[in-house]
Target: Alpha N-terminal protein methyltransferase 1
Amino acid sequence: FCLLQNQQVLGESICFSSNNMGKGKIFIDGVEGGTDSMGNTYYSRDEMWKNELDRADPTSEKGWYGKGIKYWEDVPASVDGVLGGFGHVTDVDLEESELFYQTLLREGHLKLTEPGRAADCGAGIGRISKGFLCNHFKAVDLVEPVAHFLQTAEKELSGFNDGNYIQIGLQDWVPQQGAQSCFVIFLHLDLNSLASYRLSLLGLYDVIWIQWVIGHLTDEDFVAFMMRCKRGLKEDGVIVLKENACTEGFIVDKEDSSVTRSAVYLEGLCKAAGLSVVAQ
Ligand code: SAH
Model:
């Protein structure tokens, strides 16, 4: 998918409401049950998330995020490692990404402004930055929670990337916004009007690239993260989500603590974040 900012937050079949605990609940039409890698079946997303999240604090070693990090910490910092033994697909993957990127430019979905900046989310060892994003952007910020991957990425990209290496999970990452625009607005407006203009402050990124990682985020964190990404974009910037999808429902991977969602499920969460698909 490629997703663009969209002011229309509520789609027809997707909306937010509150449950008894006062936490936002995300409804998506067309997603029923699913399975997991142990052969268990779930009647609903709710049942699956209750099962996954009620057992331990998500950040603890036994929790949803803790288990995911633990899994990747034991994986070698290599292309084959981050691609789960499918290292041979990397060339085709990068070529396809290049073609998609060119389509976005050609069709006017993405308009670049100088100096170009991209984010590589769940960057691993910087495979995508090295093979694709750094060819197009002066600075690529790599966001990755696993230390030995990020260190490898920094070594691999040294000398041809002006971006930052940020060790954090996407559930906690807040894409930077433009401090310069804040300063300019401050000079030109009185304090009363500043509040309303703050909302239209633009982000720093032309492209926020999210590939083979979003399955690590819970539904709530997925939506909240996408909303933050939206605010992190420049005016004509885009979010690109490249992900494996199952044909229906979802499949939980108990080993690396991730969930493969159907295309309907992925799109439903993006719509819940106020994004619409502009190219596929
Ligand atoms: N996108 C890269 C790496 C894919 S492997 C590529 O295509 O080459 C999945 C990556 O997601 C790993 O580097 C893993 O450490 C990272 N990851 C796992 N949980 C994450 C989380 N909660 N937030 C951000 N990244 C995460």
